[in-house]
Specification:
The structure holds two protein chains of two kinds.
Chain A: H1 10-18, H2 26-37, H3 42-52, H4 56-65, E1 77-82, H5 85-89, H6 92-103, E2 116-121, E3 133-135, E4 138-140, H7 148-153
Parallel strand pairs in A: 1-2
Antiparallel strand pairs in A: 1-3, 3-4
Chain B: E1 2-6, E2 9-13, H1 19-25, E3 49-54, E4 57-62, E5 73-75, H2 79-95, H3 100-108, H4 128-137, E6 143-145, E7 152-154, H5 169-173, E8 180-184, E9 187-191, E10 196-203, E11 210-213, H6 214-224
Parallel strand pairs in B: 1-5
Antiparallel strand pairs in B: 1-2, 3-4, 3-5, 6-7, 8-9, 9-10, 10-11
Classes of the chains: A alpha+beta, B alpha+beta.
Amino acid sequence: MPTKSKPAKPKVKAILDSYQGDPSMLVSILQDVQAEYNYLPKETLTQVSQDLDIPLTRVYSVATFFKAFSLKPRGRHIINVCLGTACHVRGAVRIRDEIERELDIKPGETTEDFKFTLETVNCVGACALGPIVIIDSKYSGQMKPDKVKTLLESYD
Amino acid sequence: MVTLKIDGREVQAEEGKTILEVARENNIYIPSLCYHEEVTPYGACRLCLVEVTGNGRERLVVSCLYEVADGLKVKTNSERIAANRQMIMELLLARCPNNQAIQELARQLGVEKTSFKLDDNQCMLCALCVRVCQEVVGVSAISLVNRGVDRALATPFYEPSDVCIGCGSCAYVCPVDAIRFEDIGDTRYIYWPNNKMEFKLKKCKTCGNYWAPEKELEYIRKQANLPADAFDNCPDCRE
């Protein structure tokens, strides 16, 4: 029984072509697909499996193995709160709680308007700046709970 | 050919074989769960560990992956091996405390109880079913997904698989009976630890019994290039 064939995504096709359909480039291909869609939509995984001629089980195993891949839609901005030791002792948990309260989501979740996704990380190697919050690729050090609201409001 | 010693006994072995294979050929028992001669060894259960001596040092290796070499000295049992196997067994027992096969092997290895926090799984993630499905059956319907404590055996997206033919090889080969299947009426049910699937069985034209999943027969028919009516009758009614 073939999968309900949705129209193939042209962007995925272009990504696959740029790797000449090389199955050993699976991780790179998935990274590019995720960069395109912000997450890995189900039909793209099926398409990758068909085009590379590898089992869907393999694509799915790889996609669920790495934390960098998400199978759920994510927000336009990814918030990473560092909960490493240095940030932790400087009150990172309170920062996280404040963001949770402000956006009404838990780590791993996305706001209803797909604006923010909240994630936590265990040390980004910028301990001197702790507690630190990273939104997309911008690092905001010496965070305080009362600075959270202003920081979040600066994104659209 | 290479010559090695297993438990002081000199044995001849073909190059490229693993310690476990050679030991079995010579009727030397090494416990294991995830090894099967028909598929690529995987080294998942770690129970088959043995001590090898090379460069004057003894070290523990997994015998299902370690290739034999000339002059290799292997011990399949020692205090160190027993202690390590018991620890592995305790961990397996903590993961699958209610699994009969694991309880039985634990008893054999002298493990009565585990000091770790009990979970309640049947599957111990050895991926033997995954390897058989891919390498022997050739369909790859199931695999290990996620990572770490969330690692699990499942079909992609935990949904009914498009490629599964319902053959039941996964259930047959599972060393701890974590996968089951049963045929009720015209339907076969396969129960994996995290999801299940149903398959329509084919009815024999002569005796009217349901005897095998339609998808499986169709798959075999295509693989073997058989005529369309090759499986109209069950094996008992075939001429």
